[in-house]
Amino acid sequence: MEVTRQNFKDSLCPIYSAIEEADFLAIDGEFSGISDGPSVSALTNGMDTPGERYVKLRKHSMDFLLFQFGLCTFRYDQSQSKYLMKAFNFYIFPKPFSRNSPDIKFICQSSSIDFLASQGFDFNKVFRSGIPYLNQEEESQLREQYEERRSQVNGAGTPSYISPNSCKGPVNVPDEHKDFIGRVVEKVDALLNSSEKSKERFIQISKVDEEERRRMEQQKYEREQEEMNDAVGFSRVIHAVSKSGKLVVGHNMLLDVMHTIHQFYCSLPEELDDFKEVTMCVFPRLLDTKLMASTQPFKELITNTSLAELEKQLKEKPFKAPRVECSEGFQSYDTASERLHEAGYDAYITGLCFISMANYLGSFLTPPRSHISARSKLLEPFYNKLFLMRVIDIPYLNISGPDLQPKRDHVLYVTFPKEWKTSDLYQLFSAFGNIQVSWLDDTSAFVSLSQLEQVQIAVNTSQYAESYRIQTYAEYLQAKQKNTNINRKWAEDGWADASYKSAGMTSTCSRAHNRSLTGKRSLSPTQEDQNSDFTGIADSNWSNYSNPETKKIKRDGMLLCSFRPVEGTPSTSPTEAEAESQEADTWPKTSANENKGRQEAVVSTVGRTQPYRSFPGISERKETSVVFI
């Protein structure tokens, strides 16, 4: 179903109903750009930590606009052993609905616009018919304005245009204004004495009794509420998704999640840990199919994890294409005609990929099962871990817990003249065999050696070099931490404003972010399972969120968010409960001994990306890569 500003109101009830009855939801977004400065290779450096990647994306990607949002709901029909899907394709644009509403500024990236245009994207539909939206802070401010005006009309406040010292009685007119006032009075007298109707605009004043006044006030209040709901617009859909507590599936979905929270909930926090807490409030269960396809038991069977290729491969053995039909009255999609980069279609095939991989996990049970529920314990290791593109040894960002911290003792930090190219670095390290270069900026890069014992040799050889310098990765981290502490000291001394700002939220998430003066507006195991190639059931982290008591998250004494799991979630049937109990007993678990060194584990088999190398004949570019998302 295509949803624009014209049919949004009429579509809300079917949308809410589809979300409520769904077993899981699949989402996708299309953006006006990806990076406002760095190239994609610089934005997704192979040696980024999760915190560094988040900071980069927050700084360089959030001024773009998410202007098409795809939502596809999937409900399993047990009696017919098939899924029924409902697809929604939303066009979104922050059109101001009144003088008081925000006038949003956003940027576009020419390559992204050109690419979407080549795919037949309808930009006119975005700008002419896009659904407006407000985040929760903007909504709160607008509601306060409405309440203030109502209070003034009802006599509970003093209108801003009336002086508190004003009183009834004659007003002294300054001499320089008397002629003007006299002419106005003459025109009013002439109008009153004339039988002709005025052709000008006029104010009608009616005398009403108390009952009529109340009725008129109620009508005005209802109009204002309708205007407010119109202004909140598409954000109401995201609130419904959040409130449902349903599993939300996406493909390479980190940017989708960040943009969704940034546009429709609150500005993104500066710190990664705060972002994780806000995300858990808004989307308590996420699953990234790109990460799922990159890990065991799928990584050895799938050769290409880009969305279109993944959907094709999951139709072939040992996988099986799922039975999915379009619900009556809704737009159907045909994968044979590929409507890639239409958000609704991409959400649809993301859902298909998830179903195929989930059902494949059922083949490991005894006896095998052809259908695995979206609530199955087999899927828990994949929850809340979002794929990190091109990071060599950290395959995912863990939304619900600590991130992996692999050893990088084989990595060197190299600084050099701006004129250097990739070929110069390969020549410098030619005696050390195969290396991998990850550029940071024009004068620095990480170089990964193939043998650990070569690290100290490389460092020693640079002691007397004049044009370059080599440090170990540990030394690089120490220097970076020292600079961070210095910056914090400056902030504490009053050179920067680093205070938290909170505002009331009307739904599940309270706004909490650290804004400075220069600021702008995976399926994988838990940390305990990081050595087990995702073969262990997730720990009890998720059980914390199924507690019927309201969970509150605090940081530095401030309430960041609170939420309560949605009641009325479809219960698991006895058959499913028995099978899922068996799943918990069958699925291999990580031993306690494997957990001891988890902070130092190097992930070599989970989500590993192939080293990217310089292409023959290309010497002027520092790094060449082809990125599939």
TrEMBL record:
CDD domains xrefs: RRM_PARN
GO molecular function list: metal ion binding; poly(A)-specific ribonuclease activity; RNA binding
Residue stretches of biased makeup (Polar residues): 153-166
Poly(A)-specific ribonuclease RNA-binding domain sequence ranges: 401-478
Keywords, comma-separated and alphabetical: Cytoplasm, Exonuclease, Hydrolase, Metal-binding, Nuclease, Nucleus, RNA-binding
E.C. number(s) listed in UniProt: 3.1.13.4
Pfam families: CAF1, RNA_bind
PANTHER family referenced in this protein's UniProt entry, alphabetically: POLY A -SPECIFIC RIBONUCLEASE/TARGET OF EGR1, MEMBER 1, POLY(A)-SPECIFIC RIBONUCLEASE PARN
Stated name of the protein: Poly(A)-specific ribonuclease PARN
